[in-house]
Design a protein that fits this description.
The protein has 654 residues and is an alpha+beta fold. The protein is built from nine helices and 38 strands. The radius of gyration is 25 Å and the shape is globular.
Amino acid sequence: MPRLVLDDLYRIAVPSDPRLRPDGGAVAYTLTTADRDSDQNQAEIWLAAPGSEPRRLASGSAARWSPDGRQLAFLRPVDGRAQIHLLPMDGGEPRPLTSAPLGAGAPVWSPDGSRIAYSGPYGDLDPHAPVVADILEYKADGTGLLRGLTTQLFVVEVATGDTVQVTEGGFHAGEPSWSPDGRRLAFAASMAPDRDLVVESAVYEVDATGPTPGKPERLTGPDVICTGAWWLTAPDGDGTPDPGSDRDGQGQGARLVVAGLREAIGHTRLYTLGPDTLDEVETGLDRNVMTGAPGYPGAVPALLGDDLLFCARDQGRTHLYRLPGEPLVGEAGEAGKSEETGEAGKAVKIVGNDFTVSGVSVAAGRVAWVASSPLSAGDVYLDGEPLTHHALPDVDLFIPRPRTFTAPDGTTIEGFVLRDETRTTPGPLLLDVHGGPHNAWSPAFDGAHLYHQRLAADGWTILLVNPRASDGYGEDFFTATIGAWGLADEQDFLAAVDDLVAEGVADPDRLAVAGYSYGGYMACWLSTRTGRFKAAIPGGCVSDLASMAGTSDLGSLIKAYECRGDLQAQSPIAQVARVTTPTLLLHGDSDDRCPVGQAEQWFAALREQGVPVRLVRYPDASHLFILNGRPSHRYDFNERIITWLEQWVTGSPS
């Protein structure tokens, strides 16, 4: 069976956002592919059910079932703006429901199915007007200059399409969640006047029944930085919500579950909001709760009967957990008992091993999820049984093998090694560094780093280290590099390289380093610390933390919370005179997270020093273009990495 080639980028299909029909009989999901002809990523709504082949329903994304299961609401672009459409499941074509001037966000059905809420951009967009900023929150990666735009909540009548704006103000409202009585919307937002200088966010509720925007009521205090809020209602056997009363008359089975952090840098935890307090959900885990974001898999929490389902990162993998019992949180913050151990507050892992979960849905006592694996970029599962088979059927993939290494201070560091295990002589090695720094490598296959598979087929070993600050190894590990970028984790990488050289896996004369985002920072950093790498490939890099603090969309917050302390000591640019490594810089031209000036500074310094260097800028590409940018850019990104390594390390183009 042949190995993967870069052209397989156009054959990889990635499922996401599973939504279980209210009767539990079928799953709607988004399937994303790369189209070569249009040079665009194509999103489609598919339906999978036990005993039948998955089928395409419509072009679009973010499918959401109506409470009676008779319609799907979803997003589809109209004149370049995402609008909510409705698809009748008994036949017929989708019809547009919204015509929002700047587009709509993911639809959220009201409990009775008569209305849909969404968050969407609001303001007067004049691309030629001067941009006036009074706070640092004036741009955002992936959007660019905000020009005064905010994100507000809207409610649209399903029968008529009439839309009402329910929030207004100088803040960005998070995704809404309906109260069980259908009268109010809960959402997370930062409304502090100095929200550009401090990390602060709370849960609010707003009336969703009035004809004009209401005044949001703050529900949480300053002790937790709230990132999301969801009214969760345990459905009964036929999929309809169970009425009753748990908070303010909202229902006995209803809970307002909140995701939040105690500190700006740390683990996300789950809480439940009672009449007066925000109580932490005790899970028995020292792990980061993952609610899902681009590049950070996971899912929003859900109720399965009285049990809470949530995702958390464990050793790089994002797994699905079940916290059994009623009550979810008692007066003393005591959770239900584990079905396996009987210990109070102990969550049970229900999807683990080498799977990475990136979406969960519950209905009628059943659970659907999407999970990737070492052999697949993702498939849809229902109660553990696969409903789809989206893996490339005719490609033999190399499997990353877990490894542990020991840093000089005795800290155990985990990583993964990807290579052709039939090769017995030392070969070239690529150390590839993940971003974040609080992300993590997992063994799951992904379509962003196709060069891993291609290089392995050519005899390379790919070393993927989860150093200090990586997610899935406890909160102390997660926060270990605060104020010490490069300084605290440098040896984690070099110790792993040393081990593979000592074992005869890696040729010490054919070593290279690459990475993206924080990984790009580390590729620059290591180039200043050692000359052992024959090539360096920083992507979306950070080279100068001082200039980054004033130019990144999150620069001030990164300086205050992540890199607090001596920025000069943590900046590769301070030691750039030491660099001799041939360097390829790959950067999105519209990157507002790690602005392209970071690559420009590194490029200019190396060029002036006579170091072989090349800068590649991708037009209109944001920081995440390697995940969701133009297919041609992603192809080029992978191809250039391979070519640079062949030129400077092996000298033998394949």
